[in-house]
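Budget justification, computational time. The allocation requested in the original proposal was used primarily to generate structure tokens for proteins on the priority list. As evidence of use, we reproduce two of the resulting records. The first is shown immediately below.
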Amino acid sequence: MTTIQRQIARDVVVVFIVSLIVITMLVMFIGVAREAINQGLGLPGVIRLIPFALPNALSLAVPGTALFSVCLVYGRMSADNEFVALQSVGISLLSSMLPAIAITSFLSIATVGLINLAFTWGFHGIQRVVISSVENIAYGVLERDRNFQHGDLTMSVWGVEGRDLIEPQIKIARANGEPVVIRGRSAQMAYRDDEQALELRITNGSAKIGASASFHFPDTFIQSIPLGIQSKYDLLTAHPSHMPMRDLSAASLRQSEDVYRREKQLAVHTGFSLLTSRCDQIADPAAVTREAEVQSSRKRLHRLGAEMHRRWASGFTCLAMSMIGIPLAIRLKASDTMTTFGIVFLPTILTYYPIFALTLEMAKDGRIAAQGVWIANVIFIGAGIVMMRQLVYRPN
């Protein structure tokens, strides 16, 4: 690297690090911490939550911070006519752009790692913190709103006095059965960490299981509600958004086999119904269920295919935005950093993210190939190359 390239790289890195620290602190302590405290998580819970929320906050902050850094450095240099001076001694503008391109390329790869960490370790860590703090959260929400909902549990109370819930009504939805509705004069909650369950001690009330059974209890009735995260990890059932990238390829292969197996079963059932002249079975409830399972399996296969490209394309937002920001900042020649950043940032955000969101949804639904997630990046990088070429060969 030449002296001028080292100087530009140093300026970009310094601005980026300072800006990233400030923006991440704002996101973490004004956004995450404030919302967590408002939801009743408490200061100890917030402190436990911060390490798991940090990768997601960084992955969101890095693209905008990278764009801000190149706008500041290249906008200031252009306003001070430093690029004119470089060209006057025969130094091409391209050589001065290469440091920022190299830095944002490295940041893009690092952001992919942050996204993968946030979607897996960070997500599951936040879940564990929230579940372990569900007792305090529930008491806080019930005291404020008189209603609380978490997963299959819905609870409403007349009031809260200390640890006592006055006249609670508890509804527990069950996937394979009728809902359970419990009413009582008072109740108390306690979280059991060893069972990852919320224990409800209800006094003097009644319980009703759908329309099939009901009973009254004058003493204390204990109801345990499991809240733990599913411990068994299965490539065929895990949510694609929260799987490590190393497992996505294997999961796609397993899912393809599952789609093929279900399609064969549906074809065999349809063929057998036609051979035996039982056409009514082709559209009976069991056949409709099998068709729905095939469609669900196909949809998950599309989501698995799009997930890998989604994470890489999201990470390379840094490079895509910077490729636009560098030539625009040089063209504007504005010494006011915020003006340059605003002119570049708003159109970039308003154009890039709608295209990215649209192509991602289409890729998840199978309407376009999974590689279509890269369309926004290709457009921005291509436009950036064109603008850089114009600056190099037609600077005026």
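The second record produced under the same allocation is shown here.
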Amino acid sequence: MHKPVLYQEIIHALQPRNGGRYVDGTLGAGGHARGILEACAPDGHLLGLDVDAKALAIARETLAPYEGRIHLAQASHVTLSQQLQKVNWDSIDGIVLDLGASSMQFDNPERGFSFMQDGPLDMRFGINAKLTAEEVVNRYDEKELAEIIFKYGEDRDSRKIAKAIVQNRPLSTTRELAAVIEKASPRRGDRLNPATQTFQALRIFVNDELAAVEQTLPQAVASLKPGGRCAVISFHSLEDRIVKEYFREQSKDLVNPPYEKIYAQERPAVVKLINKKPITPTDEENQENPRARSAKLRIVEKL
């Protein structure tokens, strides 16, 4: 199994210490969490959140040696404030968010995230979520599909792909969808597989990922103690833009709030940027874990 993306950089960024309280808001198989727990031994604690029950079960096994110092919950990082209340933590020393789907989810054909293997068109992070990719593909009209593919996949062939999807419905498996996309938008040169951006767009839409990031970041920053750090790994330009702009806004003194922001008040900077430019994986990590190639890590520290 690959090490989590930017593993060493995350541990270095959070600077876990004995007695600290940390949150992994996207627990996955527990790789980042294990590193944090090792670094904050013997008395540091970690709260791990994930909407995926299977991931949580695997993480529970991975983190079994740290029983007594871990608190796991099947929950989205969007509910961070509530989850902190449940474990009676009024503040934390650090939080990591590794956004998007995990390698474990991509590798399981039954989850429908990958066009490389055949499986149902699902793409839900948590199986209790209502909307599936199959419903979007088969029920949304051509204009709506084109807008989703263009907005979240940034694919210039979005209209062409949407038209082909509608003409070939119903579609029920990942390979069926991929074949339609590949025919409508053939690969040109060394371009990514034509299905890449549409599958990404559907996954982001089904899980409402951008809204989740926007809702979580203020909770994460508010929960940090002075000196506490928030580290966010994103894999998509739209996600990274949200993180970048929020961190930049919170790192500036707000002296004269723009008049259109009715509720804005003057305030000093809330955080400081630890890295003005995102940290990206090394060539070695990209070779070991292809998923890492688009990763960007941004870190802030609470003032």
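A brief technical remark on that second record: Residues 209-223 form the longest helix (15 residues).
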